[in-house]
Amino acid sequence: MITLLIILQFIIVVIICIAILLQKSSSIGLGAYSGSNESLFGAKGPAGFLAKFTFVMGLLLITNTIALGYLYNTASKDSLAEKIVESNTSIPPSVPNNANIPSPAPSAPQLSNDTNATN
Questions:
Q1: Burial of 51 (0-12, 13-18, 19+ CB in 10 A)
Q2: Cα dihedral angle (68, 71, 75, 76), rounded to 10 degrees?
Q3: Where are the transmembrane segments (predicted)?
């Protein structure tokens, strides 16, 4: 079921991208839903239809995203962080104690205080 919804998610995203690219840039976009009295194919032609179609596809995308989130959370009870903690506790350390551990890098030589005071 989750696989079907993920495929549907990709299809909806592609359809929304195509619908947005088909619209004119001078369109009022979401302002068309603020009380305008456009008909389906009114004086503007298909511009109102594409805006309404994009709005409906956006609602479908949001609904599908919420459904995917709900189904995924009910399918897996453990979080990814809990799985990592569980897998790290069962793995023994790969380096034995004090075996082949290189010594720390030597430090830089120290200058006397007299030299530092004259600079």
A1: buried
A2: 50
A3: 51-72
> Does pLDDT of 103 surpass 90?
no
Domains of the chain, residue spans: 1-30+47-77
Q: ∠7-9-10 over CA atoms, to 5°? A: 70
Task: With CA atoms as reference, report the closest residue to 49 among 74, 12, 24.
Answer: 24
Both tokens of 99, joined, read 């075996």
How far apart CA 43 and CA 24 sit, in angstroms, is: 15
Residue-wise pLDDT for 31-58, tens only, equals: 555 444 445 555 555 667 888 999 999 9
Cβ proximity of 9 and 67 under 8 Å: no
